[in-house]
Amino acid sequence: MTYHSFWYYWAAFFGLILVRYFAVAGGAYLLFYGLPSRFSGGTGNTGGTGNTGGLLGRRLRSKPPQLQAIRQDIYLAMQSTLFFATAAAFVIWRYDRGETCLYADLSAYGYFYAVTSFGLVLILQDSYFYFIHRAFHQPFLFKHFHAGHHRSGDPTPWTSFAFDPAEACLQAIFLVGITFIIPLNFFVLIALLLTMTVWTVVNHLGFELFPASFSRHWLSKWLIGSTHHSLHHRKYRVHYGLYFTVWDKLLGTDDPAYELEFDDSLRSEKLPERLPERLPEKLSRQLSD
Ligand SMILES: [Zn+2]
Ligand SMILES: [Zn+2]
User: Fold this and answer.
1) Which domain of life, per UniProt (predicted)?
2) What is the pTM of this model?
3) Structural domains counted in the chain
């Protein structure tokens, strides 16, 4: 078995995490924003059929994204990559010395445990994210820890990994922490990281992908999607979760208008007057006063 230095792993993970960001966020951006027709008119779609016309009718923003906002998001994401690469390198570096709870043989704890550990970490991460995210929306913490994530206003896939350094650091610490506490198979860890990547891109997509029943269905109403998280970016005081709506519902930060907003998100011709594009600037002015 070959062991490498911390900095060897750090360089490898820095490249890997950055390539992952540009591939997934960039790919989603090209797919959903690459064609000017997505924002240049059309009659919208109220039925959510999923074809190109349906996609136009499922947009959650009134204007095309600003290049400046995308640049800011990419800059923050590159900063975040520094923290996540450090976390990943640290974990593997300590794994080489037998100090983590990561394991390679899937049968060591059984398949049932592997699936259970996947679900458990999703729940733990969602809870951790909810409480730090809610704290970050206190005015002082917002200004120093979280304003960067909201700077672009309505999000795009590029916003999915755009965190202020302090927030990126706290999120990376969670991922390090679980590998020292909960026995996790490598495949489970990779599945968790892929889930996190894809889910956050969907949350920041700016298009609603799910069917009209999503916000009311007995099962999917517990899941966060594009409209749900877009409301967070518009209203600031609702929807702090990452994967699940449980904490928002339990602690009263669920937007009572969510179901109606979801219905409206499938009727985009109403959106221009409902999506205040410059709200973040107004909020940052208030915070700096
Ligand atoms: Zn926020
Ligand atoms: Zn967000």
Assistant:
1) Bacteria
2) 0.85
3) 1
Confidence band, pLDDT 50/70/90 cuts, at residue 147: very high
How far the first Cα of the chain sits from its last, in Å, is 58
At 122-137, the pLDDT tens digits run 999 999 999 999 999 9
| C-alpha of 83 from chain center | 16
Domain, as residue range, for 160 = 67-98+123-289
- Whether 146 is in a domain gets the answer yes
Greatest extent of the chain over all pairs of C-alpha atoms, in Å: 61
Ligand nearest to the CA of 133: 1
Tell me if 254 is assigned to some domain: yes
Centre of ligand 1 from the C-alpha of residue 24, in Å: 21
Average pLDDT, the chain: 88
Q: How far is the CA of 233 from the centre of ligand 2 (A)?
A: 6
Question: Residue 251 in contact with residue 221, Cβ under 8 Å?
Answer: no
- Among all ligands shown, which has an atom nearest to the Cα of 236? 1
- The DSSP call for residue 142 is I
CA 230 to ligand 1 centroid distance, Å: 10
Report how far ligand 1's centroid is from the alpha carbon of 41 (Å): 30
Rounded Cα distance between 68 and 151, Å, is 10
Instruction: Indicate if the alpha-carbon torsion angle 29, 34, 40, 45 is positive or negative.
Output: negative
Q: Is 257 inside any structural domain?
A: yes
Q: How far is the CA of 238 from the centre of ligand 1 (A)?
A: 9
**What ligand is nearest to the CA atom of residue 238?**
1
Q: Which ligand is nearest to the CA of 240?
A: 1
Domain contains 87: yes
Query: What pLDDT, on a 0 to 100 scale, did the predictor assign at position 36?
Result: 57
